[in-house]
Amino acid sequence: MASESSLPKILIVDDEEAILETMTFTFMGEYEVFTTADPRRALDLLDQNAPVAVLITDQRMPHMTGVELLEAVYAHHPETVRIMLTGFADSDATIQAINAGHAYAYISKPWEPEELKRVVRRAAELHALSLENRRLVLDLQNANSIMQSAVICCDHFSSA
Length: 160
Fold this sequence. Notes:
Layout: E1 9-13, H1 17-27, E2 32-36, H2 39-49, E3 54-58, H3 66-76, E4 81-86, H4 91-99, E5 105-108, H5 113-159
Parallel strand pairs: 1-2, 1-3, 3-4, 4-5
């Protein structure tokens, strides 16, 4: 079921309930916040609540790593801006998140709340620009199709 809020939507995925509660409190009021401790459930939440502007995910979780989740999100919701959050200094995961999951940012726990808010705000702005760009490209394609039809029509009548 889609939401009616005009706030940008963010989805937070972490297997620690305390992190989910802290993040919800940090972002409520500025964003419509969805949370889940299960990365598999995150994919369903994205489908049900699209468009989701920002996904913030932990790297180390049961059932699926954050990198695996970022890859799946990129495949199904490429406009959703993806952020990796982790308490482990794992350079391989960082590289994978950036390369395979097309991560926008990589943030270490513990994070500084104002810095995290700034990164998420910029990510949400990037998402809005991406959606607007897609809309403008579609409008341009439609206008070009109409013009091509008009030219073909005019050529047909002028040669008759």
